Amino acid sequence: xxxxxxxxxxxxxxxxxxxxxxxxxxxxxxxxxxxxxxxxxxxxxxxxxxxxxxxxxxxxxxxxxxxxxx
Amino acid sequence: xxxxxxxxxxxxxxxxxxxxxxxxxxxxxxxxxxxxxxxxxxxxxxxxxxxxxxxxxxxxxxxxxxxxxxxxxxxxxxxxxxxxxxxxxxxxxxxxxxxxxxxxxxxxxxxxxxxxxxxxxxxxxxxxxxxxxxxxxxxxxxxxxxxxxxxxxxxxxxxxxxxxxxxxxxxxxxxxxxxxxxxxxxxxxxxxxxxxxxxxxxxxxxxxxxxxxxxxxxxxxxxxxxxxxxxxxxxxxxxxxxxxxxxxxxxxxxxxxxxxxxxxxxxxxxxxxxxxxxxxxxxxxxxxxxxxxxxxxxxxxxxxxxxxxxxxxxxxxxxxxxxxxxxxxxxxxxxxxxxxxxxxxxxxxxxxxxxxxxxxxxxxxxxxxxxxxxxxxxxxxxxxxxxxxxxxxxxxxxxxxxxxxxxxxxxxxxxxxxxxxxxxxxxxxxxxxxxxxxxxxxxxxxxxxxxxxxxxxxxxxxxxxxxxxxxxxxxxxxxxxxxxxxxxxxxxxxxxxxxxxxxxxxxxxxxxxxxxxxxxxxxxxxxxxxxxxxxxxxxxxxxxxxxxxxxxxxxxxxxxxxxxxxxxxxxxxxxxxxxxxxxxxxxxxxxxxxxxxxxxxxxxxxxxxxxxxxxxxxxxxxxxxxxxxxxxxxxxx
Lengths: 70, 637
Fold this sequence. Notes:
heterodimer, A: 70 residues, mainly alpha, F1FO ATP Synthase, 3 helices, elongated, B: 637 residues, alpha+beta, Alpha-Beta Plaits, 6-stranded antiparallel beta sheet, 3-stranded antiparallel beta sheet, 11 strands, ATPase_proteolipid_c-like_dom (chain A), proton-transporting ATPase activity, rotational mechanism (chain A), ATPase_proteolipid_csu (chain A), ion transport (chain A), transmembrane (chain A)
């Protein structure tokens, strides 16, 4: 039972943070596409901005790994 | 790296101003400053350059003439090989007399040519339709009928059109269709002439485009329209050729002269405009600005050689208050130059800051290799980068190829350490001695390794930040950076002491040292210090992406290999595995690139970089990409 709960907690940690990252990236992606239509020279900056929310899922992953392995 | 700049003053007699400016411009290494602290000190008799009336009149004359010549450009096509041997300065007055007449005739020629081009294009389109419906016309020999040519966008519209025509004419019509050369469906409608107006209205209401025949042929029967259309096309083609020949003749005769004068005027005006940046006394001019230190001696030698001792070049002391104004020029060794592709995405750093290219060049390939870490993928990227380098024409693509070439070696190196070759661990004897970790199973050790790399990277960033703050004479900022650096070191030590068997006093000492670092940070940074510390810890955790993305990559490769085995059929399995490996390879190039850049731009550079530098824009001849070398100093006896 304890193993099941641990697995569920790890899944929640990574699943919810992945949803949050996806939501943030969808907002940044649409705004970025609009910005690129007017200023194509911002391509690099927009790509970097798009990668920034991935910290959320990385943190979720670290928490999940700590739940499962520590 | 950021090129060291020298602050320079050039002083000479006023009558040599233009020749000196000309030489400075030819050198292409000197950024002239309109304002400088030395000249703002209101030294007696020094004032901004005031051109006399004759100079102003001359400049206005040049600008007016250049504007008029620019208007002629549509008629001045290039004739390679034809050059004017007239001295432009001597021909100015003569050209000023004829340029107005040429402008009028050029405008007229261009207008005619434009109209003819438009008409020819329209006639060509119409001819295309006509040639499409010509076979249909043969079946409609009765010229007493009214004819309509229409284009039908959708075949479904044709049924609706036929229904409407049937209602309107009581079935007294005929419709024939064919496909034009451009693929559109063309229809020819034949009906008694009394229905012509009503059908035209119907087509307008239904928005079915009628073939747009010239207005003057509208009332004539369609067969006659066809004939006249073709005749007119021939006429227009002849007229266009005649006008183009006139333009060509004009360009052939006057083009080289006008081009030479245009270039001379642009040169001269760039000099005259630069005089607005000069200061002067009653007898001397004073020119202030910046140039790269390695170019100072060359400029001095060039001026000395041409003007002897009458013009003096003096290096001025760069004071602390000048530092924010020093223009920034970046120049890197060949290894680092391709990485400017990534540093160009950032704003220009301050002169007192660091060139981000060096750090990206050092760490990017290592982190890329740590993430991708597969000898097979690394080999493919290596081959791809060599091919790209060979065939790419654009500079950015060539730079990308060079970066991939370097990064691929690191991917191969880490691939050997991880024992990975397209996601599998081959049982090669030599690999057994090299491979140290299996990423698929060693999740926690890899996580600790990635975070440790982050700690080391950020410690370097904080150290450089403290160094920069000390150079800017901001001791509190430097202390805050050092306190945060110490906090990271002691926190990392405390974490290790709990994972490994450390004596309890050591663990306790590390905890106390971390606490002391927090107190120091609070003293240096005030209430915002805790936020800063939390940010640094978050930054360290962010480096876990090195392991996380790498793990995702190796698992996709593993799945690709499993798929191949599960399919049960060799060819299908190989194709499926190949496709999945291809997807993984593309992801394996883009994903590490984006994330490694993000680690640099956000986490690492945030610790020490300061942006907002002024780009070095030397005074140079318009359109000159690189400065030609100045004459070298003659060897001494």
